[in-house]
Amino acid sequence: MKKAALGFKYIALDGELLVPTEKDVSDSRLDRLTDSHTKEKQRKLRCYNKNKLAYNRQKRAVARSIVGRYEEAKRNALKYGQEWRFDLETWERAWQTAGWVTIPGSQSAENPEGVTVPAFGLRGPHRYNNTCMVRIDFGQPWSPDNTKIVFRGEELAVGSRWYKNGPTTEGQTS
Fold first, then answer.
1. Can you give the pTM of this predicted structure?
2. Structural domain of residue 156, as residue ranges?
3. How far apart are CA 133 and CA 124, in angstroms?
4. Arithmetic mean of pLDDT, 145-156
5. What pLDDT score does 29 carry?
6. Do 116 and 131 form a contact (C-beta atoms < 8 A)?
7. CA 159/CA 99 separation, integer angstroms
8. Which ranges in 7-110 belong to alpha helices (H)?
């Protein structure tokens, strides 16, 4: 027998009044929850569309910060099932001790040393144009003992052709 819900009554298509079952009551509760959830999503979407420039500006500022970049690196490692044993201070120290990078092709007659940039400032996904933190042993977790900072496949360390201890101004290292 088919039935239709009309307000507070359940009426069979034959015209007789039916007593609501527990399933009918739970379905109406579920409908109310679904409607409430839908209205809440619509309200949040309206709020986002009204303030999206400010929200996006704030999200970009957080993503550019050191804490935001640390969180992104940690999130990416965990996403791929890799163990993460860095805390913010040790991760930041690893990038600070990586030194500075001489940008290839930036040497000129006026600036024979070339342009130097902090290794952290060149972070990125491209291993030939950007610096990146890599694991030495892929079977081990991300930790200070198992990582190194590389640029163009070479570890940034004293003696590396891209490594500088600090920025250069007029041929002097400071």
1. 0.62
2. 86-173
3. 10
4. 86
5. 73
6. no
7. 12
8. 22-64, 66-79, 88-96
